[in-house]
Amino acid sequence: MHLGKRTNMKFHRIIITILVAVVFDSCATTMQEPCESEIFAVKGSCFGCDEFIKVQFFDKDTKKSLSSRYFSILLVSDDEKIVSTIFGKSDENGWVYIKNIPAKKYLIFFYDDEESFRKDIITENKN
Prior knowledge:
- The protein is α+β, with helices and mostly antiparallel strands.
- The protein has helices at residues 2-30, 114-126, and strands at residues 38-43, 51-56, 70-76, 82-89, 95-101, 105-110.
- The strands form two sheets. It has a four-stranded antiparallel sheet, covered by helices on one side.
- β3 (70-76) and β4 form a beta hairpin.
């Protein structure tokens, strides 16, 4: 009877070890370095600098990442004027990553649907 308990303990240790390995493996795949965000349109001059934006966004209620969501980034000057607008899409893990932009204040807005996003691009390009 003592031998049966010992074998059972080894079995539990193996199961726990496998579960921990699976959890760490899934964390490693979700913590990958984000790719540069897909950019659809830019109004104004904003590229050619050495700075970048790299931030991951989550829904405050559900705690899920804002994956593959359309966004606009407004670059704001020191005197609070909009210098440039970037329209893009976050990656599958909710990352917004834009390279080669100036160090400025930024406002980032996410869209609920693609139609609103497209309307804003058209409106911005008319101005």
